[in-house]
Structure prediction request, 365 residues.
Amino acid sequence: MSSIIIIGGGIIGLLTAFELHRAGQKVTLIDRQAFGQESSWAGGGIISPLYPWRYPDAITRLARFSQQIYPDTLAPMQQRTGLDPEFEPNGMLILGDYAREQPQQWVTKHAINMRMVDAAQIHELAPELAERHQQGWWMPDIHQLRNPRLVALVKAYLQTTDITLLEHEAVTAINTLQLRVDSISTSKSTYRADQFVIAGGAWSSQLLQSRGADCGIKPIKGQMLLLQGRAGCVKRITLSEDRYIIPRKDGHVLIGSTTEDVGFNKDTSAQVREQLLDYAVRTIPALKSFTLQQHWSGLRPGSANGIPKIGQHPQLENLYINSGHYRNGLVLAPASARLLSEIMLHKALSLDQSDYAPCDGTHMI
Ligand SMILES: Cc1cc2nc3c(=O)[nH]c(=O)nc-3n(C[C@H](O)[C@H](O)[C@H](O)COP(=O)(O)OP(=O)(O)OC[C@H]3O[C@@H](n4cnc5c(N)ncnc54)[C@H](O)[C@@H]3O)c2cc1C
Prediction:
């Protein structure tokens, strides 16, 4: 049994802790605030990349694997805690006049359940939509999750195990001895372990900076609106104009999102709020009667082509990275955690790890 410290308790760190503990390791998870309060709280919870055919195959493979293992990952947690993250199969409609060739090739290559729909079929699937779209793509299998509930579920489950959970304790230094990490210093103490994992989201490069390779992960801000109205009024996850609408079961509706390269700045702006509201009402006129409840932003861990870094640090043999999931951290989390656990424990790998090799010199989106 190895002792392993994971730095960062967003969804990536939480599920990495789950996988390593399930494999019999002695795990400590540490975050500078309460778990899951950053990007993993702020996201929309769509369990699919947006416009999924635009991404490299490395993302499609990781996403497909995650989509397969999500139900079995959540089931034991739900059983033990009684919490429900609302993992719901709403299906996703992608609207707009996109060239057919690329999506069609992607569907065939990866055997994806996605089909083209015309105006009448769109109306049948989502009568709430303004009738202005002549064509779209329909992905019936796509699920969504409620981010804060997912984080609460995983945290509650981990609390029932012997994992050491440290919140409100910032990691201030990674201390090395020759080519190994010897310990980490925090705002409260110093901790030693056999192996260490960086799952610090948008802050991963800051954590790695003094260690030679920073993996080129940087914050990309996304702003989001939360509306409240009649439950059942909006039926599908809808994607168009590089924006999306996500209906929750209780009548909440999320409208997202921007992609802003503005550093560690989480301000929201009135201009973006008006743009998102305008988009929402043009897409689903009934949203005009909904009330705006909240407007927030989160910092995604941006990476080159959105491909996360999963694996061993190039210089420090007992340091591992699981970060850089950019717009897809919720969908990619179970597969990324499983793959990293397999790499660390020298098990047969579910996916080719070379696609996700950390810090190979490729930088930025
Ligand atoms: C608006 C928005 C919409 C999104 N929508 C979706 C979606 O629909 N589907 C999807 O799949 N993805 C979506 N995402 C992306 C997804 O949320 C992220 O990719 C994912 O949450 C990243 O998880 P993480 O654990 O790596 O990072 P985070 O959740 O940011 O966690 C990193 C953690 O590290 C901690 N930390 C940082 N520095 C230190 C330190 N020095 N010491 C201790 N702890 C530290 C932080 O406190 C934080 O808790 C969205 C993101 C945003 C912002």
About this structure: The longest strand covers residues 291-302.
